Amino acid sequence: MVKLNKIYTRTGDDGTTGLVDGSRIAKSDALMAAIGDVDEANSAIGIAAAALDPASDAAAMLARIQNEMFDLGADLATPPDIQFGFGPHDMALRIVPSQIARLEDEIDAMNGALGALKSFILPGGTEAAARLHLARAVARRAERAAVAAGATRDLNPLALAYLNRLSDHLFVLTRHLNAPAGGDVLWKPGATR
């Protein structure tokens, strides 16, 4: 369990930050960019969730995802050889296959009720869908940052898979939310020429 008594520690004043094992890296490190982008994506998801009925299935999906985004941040901040952490059996907190499988199951369930795509979709529609489009774009950036960090250090490959699946999930959820409100906002190539 996390317990914070003091918010500022002054330990980062030198431009470094701590990882789960206590080691320190530069705040400008590619890994910290990925962790920051995951945090930003989580915040964008929270903004989108605020536009939903809290009792809706979509809000429940986003609540699970937001919790998993903290798992993902912890996974990225834990060096691969660490065997302690916050999970069952005192193992390091890692993204696991069941989290990705659940995203895929939710994608398939939502997508099954939608028509086939015949055009690219403009980011818009309902307020919640428009906010989710922004969250999806931030999740894609987080994925790119994690891939860049993975070029210089070992990362859990399931963390990268989760980010990839997350952006797909958010995209399909935008379509799911827009469907009862008139459908997707479609791109019309060259429409303003």
Overall description:
By secondary structure, this protein is mainly alpha-helical. It has one domain (about 30-110, about 120-180): Cobalamin adenosyltransferase-like (Hypothetical Protein Ta1238, Chain: A), CATH 1.20.1200.10. It contains five helices and two strands. The protein has a two-stranded antiparallel ribbon with strand order 1-2. The longest helix is centred in the C-terminal third of the chain and has 24 residues, at about 125-150. It is elongated. It starts with 15 loop residues before the first strand and ends in a 15-residue tail after the last helix.
Strand order across the biggest sheet? Answer: 1-2
What is the name of the CATH superfamily?
A: Cobalamin adenosyltransferase-like
- Number of alpha- plus pi-helical segments: 5
Strand content: under 5%
List strands and helices in order, with pairings.
Elements: E1 16-18, E2 24-26, H1 30-49, H2 57-76, H3 97-112, H4 127-150, H5 157-178
Antiparallel strand pairs: 1-2
